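Morning!

This is the sequence you dropped in the shared folder:
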Amino acid sequence: MARTIKENIEKDGIDRRGFLECMAWAGTGLVWSLTGGVASSQTMNHGDHAKADLSFVQISDSHIGFNKEANPDVKVTLAAAVAKINAMPEPPAFLIHTGDITHLSKPEEFDTASSVLDTVKTGARFFVPGEHDVLVDNGKPYLERYGKNTTGDGWLSFDQKGVHFIGLVNVMSVKPGGLGALGKEQLEWLKKDLKRKSASTPIVVFAHVPLWTVYPEWGWGTDDGAQALSYLRRFGSVTVLNGHIHQNMQKVEGHMTFHTACSTAFPQPKPGSAPSPGPMKVPAEQLRSMLGLTSVRYVAGKHSLAVVDSTLESSATASADLVKIDNFSFSPSPNSVKAGTKVTWINHDDIPHNVVSTDKSFVSPVLDTDEKFSHQFDTPGEYNYYCSLHPRMTGKLVVM
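The structure's back. Tokens below.
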């Protein structure tokens, strides 16, 4: 984490100021790359990806059956996510869906979801349920469709290219206040499953509700998640993927990287920024910029997973002369403009950033939230730039 947490108001190591400074927020999905076990993130448009030994995608919170004002046609946006996956230059090995496939667990909702997901060009597909998928008959309709080769309420584990994957179910017995729960039986299964693995094995855990406490006031956490995480601490590379909160958020704690994915249906507010969670209505033209998917790439022998978020907003609808600074990234990047174009960067993050060319041909002042910087590009060429306050934030502009 780049910033120090100064207060421990909730006795969990996170204060409100430190929480927002240490998290990466955006309305995007995620592309993951595993490189020896530690996660890093960049936008899907970044382009500079090493050849991966393994790549896969995560989508979440499709809420098929939802038809309210926040998004009256969630089937269309799920299909847009699938189209984005199918257009990837390197087809992912498999897809993970981290729950809330449906909105009300109705058979026709599961059928509609399957009709879209069956078109995705990946190998296997793996699922864990969200609370919206188990509303009927103790989750029986979900398990009939997705419970094959799973244990208990749908737990599973499998291995791919030396990486061990574990799917957990934390929505069957939600605690008062909305916190997820794994339960004693599943925790015992997890402990036994991990005993067979050496500490050098990269581990990827996926579940619906975050295993770490994001915002307990809204039930954004798992009541017994700390117990599960204690079994994972001996491993040198652990990545934990979740959904549920409908926005990207990342935390790194030792060898563990935690990441939540955007919804393909509708956004939800940042924790504490509204009276309660739930579907957040945004202008129609902004909706797809707040929905997305995640891709993960693993390169053997390295020490991080490469995680990339991608929005459902098409490049055709983005303005070429505007670069958004959000989720500690520049978007779009790389970006192409014609010579003579004035390009404007605008900071949508809640902490300051700046824009600095690697050749120092342009340098912005420090930009606070909603502040802008513009520079006119008259000479064709490639211009690489970064944020000097957060040097891992990089971008590229191609002037033609």
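Headline: The radius of gyration is 21 Å.

More detail when I'm at my desk.
O.
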